[in-house]
From TrEMBL:
<feature type="domain" description="Histidine kinase">
    <location>
        <begin position="20"/>
        <end position="224"/>
    </location>
</feature>
<protein>
    <recommendedName>
        <fullName>histidine kinase</fullName>
    </recommendedName>
</protein>
C-alpha cells in the first residue's frame, strides 16, 4: 500500500498524467489516420479495417471517460452513505455479467450501519473497477468473496478473488497509469480508484499470489455521528 501511495504521489503533477493520456490517445489516432489515408488513395478498406477502427475509437473513448472521473471536481459532493448499499448496488450491477463468466459473488456484510462520507458515484466506480479486475482475472470462473465489516474507526472491505494473481515483479507497478496486461485495458482503473479512495481519506491495499488470487482491501473512515 505504501508503495501504491508513494507512486501515486509521484504522479500528482497533472502535467505528467496529461502527457500520458495524450500519448495513449495518439497511438490509436495514428492508426485511424493511416486507414483514412489509405482510403484517400482509393484503397478499399475491408471489414477487418473497420473493426480495428471501431476498437481504436472505443479505446480512445474508454481512456477519456476513465480520465474524466478524475477531472470533475464540481460533481464531488460528499454525503453520509452506508457503504453496504453502495457495495450491494455494484454487485447487482455486475451480477448478470459475472453469471455468464461462471463467477459467483459471495457477499458477507455486517448488520451494523457502515456510514462513511462518500461521493456515491465515485465510490461505486472504485468497487466496479476492483470487481471488474477480479472478474477479468477469472477466466475459468470461481468465487469472488466480498467481506465488509467495521473495525475500530474504519469500514473494511475485502475483495478476494480466485484469479490468476499478479506476479511479484508486476505488483510494484500497480497504480501506475497505463500499466496493463490486457489487450483492451487502459491501465487507469487502479490509479483512478486509488485517487478516489484518497479523497475519501481511506486506503487501498492489494495483495496477490500468482496462481492463487488477489485480495484488495479498501479502508474508509467511519462517519462520526453529529
Ligand atoms: P486495466 O484493468 O485496464 O488493465 P487496472 O489499473 O485496473 O487497469 O489494472 C492494472 C493491471 O493490474 C491489470 O492489467 C492487471 O494486470 C493487474 N490486476 C489488477 N487487479 C488484478 C486482479 N484482481 N487479478 C489479477 N491482476 C490484476
Ligand atoms: Mg481494471
Amino acid at each position: 500500500m505504501e508503495e501504491l501511495l508513494r507512486r501515486s504521489e509521484k504522479l500528482t503533477t497533472v502535467g505528467q498524467l496529461a502527457a500520458g493520456v495524450a500519448h495513449e490517445i495518439r497511438n490509436p489516432l495514428t492508426t485511424l489516420r493511416g486507414f483514412l489515408q489509405l482510403q484517400q488513395q482509393n484503397q478499399v478498406l475491408n471489414m477487418k479495417h473497420n473493426d480495428i477502427m471501431m476498437s481504436e475509437l472505443d479505446r480512445i473513448n474508454l481512456i477519456v471517460s476513465e480520465f474524466l472521473i478524475l477531472a470533475k471536481p464540481q460533481a464531488v459532493h460528499f454525503q453520509k452513505k452506508d457503504v453496504r448499499y453502495i457495495v450491494s448496488d455494484v454487485i447487482s450491477l455486475l451480477d448478470s455479467q459475472a453469471h455468464l463468466l461462471g463467477i459467483v459473488f459471495n457477499l458477507q456484510v455486517t448488520d451494523e450501519p457502515a456510514l462513511v462520507y462518500a461521493e456515491e458515484n465515485q465510490l461505486k466506480q472504485v468497487f466496479i473497477n476492483l470487481l471488474k479486475n477480479s472478474m477479468e482475472a477469472m477466466s475459468k470462473g470461481g468465487i469472488i468473496t466480498i467481506h465488509l465489516f467495521l473495525e475500530g474507526e474504519s469500514v473494511k472491505i475485502f475483495i478476494r478473488d480466485q484469479g490468476t494473481g499478479i506476479p511479484a515483479e508486476m505488483l510494484s507497478k500497480l497504480g501506475e497509469p497505463f500499466f496493463t496486461n490486457k489487450e483492451t485495458g487502459t491501465g487507469l482503473g487502479l490509479m483512478v480508484s486509488q485517487r478516489i479512495i484518497q479523497s475519501h481519506k481511506g486506503t487501498l491495499d492489494i495483495e496477490s499470489t500468482e496462481g492463487e488470487g488477489t485480495t484488495a482491501l479498501v479502508q474508509l473512515p467511519i462517519a462520526k455521528p453529529e
